Amino acid sequence: MKYLSLDTNIYLDMVVSRNKSHTPDAYEQMKKLLDYGEIKLVVPSIVIREVDRHINNEIEKINAHLKLIKKNVDSLYWINNVEEMKLFKQKIPNVKKDIKDIQKLFENNKGKYLLNAKEIFDNLFSHNHVIILEETHEILFRAQVRQLYKKRPFHYNQQEKDSLADAVIIESLIEFTNTNIDSDDHLYFISRNTKDFSADDAEDKLHPEINESIVSANIERQFKYRNFFNKTLRDDFKDEAEHAGFLEELEVIRNSEYAEYLVEQHRDSASLPSLSSDWEVIISEYKEAESFLGELLDYQGSLINQFENLSDEYFDLIDQIQHSNLESTQQLIRNFNDNDIENLEISEDLDENQAAIIELIDSRISIDINGYEATDLWNCEDYFSLNDGALLKFQDFNNKVLKVEISGDLCPEDGGADFIDVIVNDNILNKSIKGVIEVRYGYMNFDEDNCAADGMKEEVHFYLDDVIEAVKNVSHHLEKQIQHERIIIEEIRVKLGL
């Protein structure tokens, strides 16, 4: 008997075609294999939860990408005073209309797409030839040991990365193979997550820190690791695929997968990052990205510090007044009346005197210090993330807002490029600004003798000076407001004689 187990991304590829090798046939092929009954699909229960959690996000990414395409087409322009300008003007409206129609079609059917995707997986996971693996205390314990010692799929240099789900998956499969598979049977685990599961020097082999557990369980002959879904079906499930009636389809798809594999091999030989790498992380590790985030966080920190100083001075003054006795409050009012054009009435009641002074202070300052929390007013994330809400949000004391958002999609292609918008919407100083992060993925070509012919290193360029300038201007504007209030409080303190 052959058993097959798929990582979360392989299932998502069944409903979302995220690159050229992902065909809409994958689900039907899997279903045919199960229906024929010669194999069984092994599914850790955490994979089901991960698939369910990610479906909506993957479908929403399509919507975001369509919006980005429309936006890029809207911003297209041509060279003046050439013959092709007329052709450009003729063609562009049709392109815009087609994209708008596709976007409208997607938005009208987005709910249906999500329901269909969930139905596909509900049907698949409830199949008679599917084995669901529930986590046991022993499996969770072994996964946590991996986490503790930072053994793959965990990484020493990525402490913040949460790989516990991947650890539970691999430990569940090791446990199942060890206790349920005969010596002549095989379990094939397919994952494109080579960064976490594969050896550093060979993507088609498990990392030694995972393989040592397989060797320790004496199941290295039964446990097989693969990276490509269609290639695995073609090479390792050839007879089963032929019996189920789709062997020829697999041959075509496998060739496409292999072409993609060669591209990755060429990139690896030139020390280029894999196209399947987490490019958000790659971008965030550039010193320009770190510097950009650092400057934004500095402006946030400065505002919070200034406001906290204002708050401390305000509440110190209020505290002094509230701890003054009747005679002291009367003297404070006399001092104030001697130094200001406004006169406060002196009462024989302590509470009335204290209330009059505090009311005066609150009437002179324009910021409701009691009503604001500095960390709510000025928020800035300390990590780089696309399409994840506001990177920075500064609010003034009239509820006007400055927002910085990172918008765009990364679609890595060999030799390709993507452009990420860093958008500033400033309702405080009434400005709209856009910066750009340009991502070039690089490439490496080889000649017939397998020698490097030409290539280009991956590059990320940051055009964010205007964004930083906009944040700086708003920060200085807010700091001036805060400083103005501090001056008022200090003037009142002096006039009170404190």
From TrEMBL:
Pfam families per UniProt: PIN_12
Domain DUF4935 intervals: 5-197
Domain of life: Bacteria
Name of protein: PIN domain-containing protein
